[in-house]
Amino acid sequence: MATDECRLRTEEGVEALLEYCAGRLHAADAVVLESHLAGCAPCREFAAAQQTVWQSLDAWEPAIETQGFQSRLNARLAEDSTPAWKDRLRAWSSGISWKPAIPMAAAFALWAAISAPPRPEIPAQAEQVRPEAVERMLEDVDMLDQLKLNAQ
Amino acid sequence: MKARLWGAGTLLLMLLTSYPASARQSGGAQKGPARTGANTIERLRRMSPEERKKALEKLPPERRRQAEERLRRLDRMSAAERDDLERRYDNFQRLPSARQELARKMFRNFNDLPPDRRNDVRAGFERLRRMSSAERSAFLKSREFSQQYNRREQAILEDYAELLQSPQL
């Protein structure tokens, strides 16, 4: 990936940024990314926002659980061991980045428009048919019928 | 990685769907040229009385009457007659436009003849149709031809003989 290309444009770039903010990026990659961040404002803002989240999470201390909370929680979890389909769908789809699908969908829509089969013949509608065209067709058909021009 | 998966999935979907699309575009399993004649004649036949009225109402009365009569004639045809006509209409459409215009002009001249003369000229068409090219040429130069038909009728029959030379007819 080019050093100067905005990382937010590709999923790999975004993932690298997230890894970096989580402190999991390989040191050598982190150095490259940091040099990019110095010159890319959107990536810098993104990284700053992510780091704020991580710092907040690091600072968060879970409240001391009240007596019986864990047992109630376990009982509740047992009740809801099978999540609703909406929740499962949401959980599944949250793991998918839709970003790369957008250009694909656009390309597919373009392709579908170009390669779409011709529309079936629209049944004759008086509003769409010019009287002269109808007259011409009828004349041709009548001529072929009467004169047997190419009858076998 | 996900982007590549999406790309591959999209490509696969395009490949899977492209065959039927292109097959439909080329007429699918249909062999031979498209039957435009069937489309045209079916379109004309399928017009409801209201659609016919609307389609023809802007024509001058005499032309409208003639078109209505032609539609009725089409309605009275059997399926076999229509099928034959559709095939001939297809062949006619493949004629060069100058030849099509010659045929139309000849047919209009024919329709302008008095009814009794029309029958004689129609018999002439039939006779010419059954002749070889050489026989037709000889017939058009014959005394019989010049005596049986007046100048106007001769011109119609000469145009008819000329049209019969078209390979599509």
Summarize the structure.
The complex is a heterodimer of chains A (152) and B (169). Chain A is built from seven helices and no strands.
Describe this protein's structure.
The complex is a heterodimer of chains A (152) and B (169). Chain A is mainly α. Chain A has a domain of 60 residues. Chain A is 63% helix and 0% strand. Chain B is mainly α and 169 residues long. Chain B folds into two domains: 60 residues, no CATH class; 74 residues, no CATH class. In chain B, α6 packs antiparallel against α10. The termini of chain B are far apart. Classes of the chains: A mainly alpha (152), B mainly alpha (169). The interface between A and B is large, with 44 and 56 residues.
Write the layout of secondary structure elements.
The complex is a heterodimer of chains A (152) and B (169).
Chain A lengths: L10 H11 L5 H13 L1 H19 L9 H11 L5 H10 L6 H15 L15 H17 L5
Helix pairs in contact in A: 1-3, 2-3
Chain B lengths: L1 H24 L10 H11 L2 H8 L4 H16 L2 H15 L3 H15 L3 H16 L2 H8 L2 H6 L2 H14 L5
Helix pairs in contact in B: 2-5, 6-10, 7-10
- Please give the radius of gyration of chain A in angstroms: 33 Å
Q: How many structurally independent domains of chain B?
A: 2
Biggest pleated sheet of chain B: none
Which series of helices and strands of chain A comes N to C? HHHHHHH
What fraction of residues of chain A sit in β-strands? under 5%
The SSE order of chain B reads: HHHHHHHHHH
Number of helices of chain A: 7
pLDDT averaged over residues of chain B: 80
The count of strands of chain B amounts to: 0
Ranges of chain B with pLDDT <50 over ≥5 residues? Answer: 18-33
Quaternary structure type? heterodimer
How much helical structure, as a percent, in the residues of chain A? 55-70%
Strand content of chain B: under 5%
Count interface residues per chain for the largest interface: A-B, 44 and 56 residues
| Radius of gyration of chain B, whole Å | 24 Å
